What does this fold into?
Amino acid sequence: MRPFGYLSAPDLPTALDAVAAGARPLGGGTNLVDLMREDVERPETLVDVTALPLAGMDELPGGGLRIGAVVRNSHLAADRLVRSRYPVLAQALLAGASGQLRNMATVGGNLLQRTRCPYFRDHAASCNKREPGSGCAALGGLHRGMAVLGTSEHCIAAHPSDMAVALVALDAVVEVQSVRGTRRIPLAELHRPPGETPHVETRLAADELITAVELPALPVARTSRYRKVRDRASFAFALVSVAAALEVRDGEVVDVRLALGGVATTPWRAREAERLLLRAPATDETFRRAAAAELAPAVARPDNAFKIELVQRTVVATLRQLATERSSAERADGTERSSAERADGTEGGAA
Ligand code: SF4
It folds into this structure.
């Protein structure tokens, strides 16, 4: 590993000054440190942000939730308010990594994790993301795990985060700060498709630090699920995944959120499918038609063409499961939770 500087920031202004001077933020280090060991990432200085006062979770007026950027994935998954109001998020986190990794990984770091395309870490292979302009070895190589949506001729790597797929379905907003001020970015706009610049993965400026993620009050999210299909039962990246929230009344879809993972270069909000689902009968036929429309623009290669059918089936299975559960209105009856309830341990078990 190359030598690097290390600073543990005692407060936010110190961290923002360091980032403005070129330091890379260090959360749990579960991805960045790995890549430094493999000489893919070469930061000159790391600024450790885990001691900053960004580890809290606070209810927002109206029922939303503000999640500090250095909240550990394990804490977020176990939070009783998250489990009751946004079960899709807790499930995505638990599906996302081993317990050891969840104990280290932070919310901000999870959003900025980099691709698991094997060529990205292989210095003998061409990779536009690692070395801009060098080419893409995956196009003519191993691409079973690669994306079919949002790709370009310069990169077809799938986005690796499970958590981000759930958050994009939940209309999450990311708060970022820099020495220039604070701004908010809808999570659906944080990650950039590869286009001609696959190495530019987000819309963050170089001096910006993710400080929080905010979830709006979203009643439909009480009836939500994350379903992940992978090669082995645990500790593997998604071949395909689906984050869905659904409310059905009198057999008709009255609210829906849908996002896809493992199939796209960014956490993929399935807006075309949502459009077709809303006010339609909650039937398998509707679910199939919506999933097919969302995947219509997919571009597959020989080894990942199976993902198109697999993710459509996973969408149908997930929506069918949600449609047969109690409606969110029924579930809300007597189950509205407050932070006091969250603290007194009356709901569910910790992960
Ligand atoms: Fe690199 Fe993207 Fe091609 Fe993988 S798919 S080799 S990350 S450019």
